[in-house]
Design a protein that fits this description.
83 residues, 3 helices, 14% strand, Arc Repressor Mutant, subunit A, alpha+beta
C-alpha cells in the first residue's frame, strides 16, 4: 500500500511517540506534550505537533487533544476507537 505521507520521524517526534507507547496511550493533550519536552518552548512543541499532523502521524481530536495514527494507516481514513 502506497502512502501519501512522508512518515519519517525526527528525534523529537520519535521521543513523543516512544513516550506514548511506553505509557500505553493513543491520545494525549497538548499539556502532556509540553510536559514531555520541558526543555522546549510551547511554540517549539506546537511546531513539532504541527509537523506530526502534516505527516499524518497525528490527528487533532479537539483544540487541545491529539490521537496517534497507526503507521500503516492514512490520517484522513483513520477513525479512532475511543470506546
Amino acid at each position: 500500500m502506497e502512502t501519501k505521507y512522508n512518515k519519517t520521524v525526527s528525534s523529537s517526534e520519535s521521543a513523543l511517540l516512544g513516550l506514548l507507547v511506553e505509557e500505553g496511550k493513543q491520545w494525549f493533550t497538548i499539556e502532556e506534550a509540553y510536559a514531555a519536552f520541558p526543555d522546549k518552548s510551547e511554540g517549539a512543541v506546537r511546531f513539532i505537533l504541527k509537523r506530526m499532523l502534516d505527516k499524518g502521524l497525528l490527528i487533532k481530536i479537539s483544540r487541545k487533544v491529539y490521537w496517534t495514527v497507526p503507521f500503516d494507516q492514512e490520517a484522513e481514513d483513520y477513525l479512532p476507537d475511543w470506546h
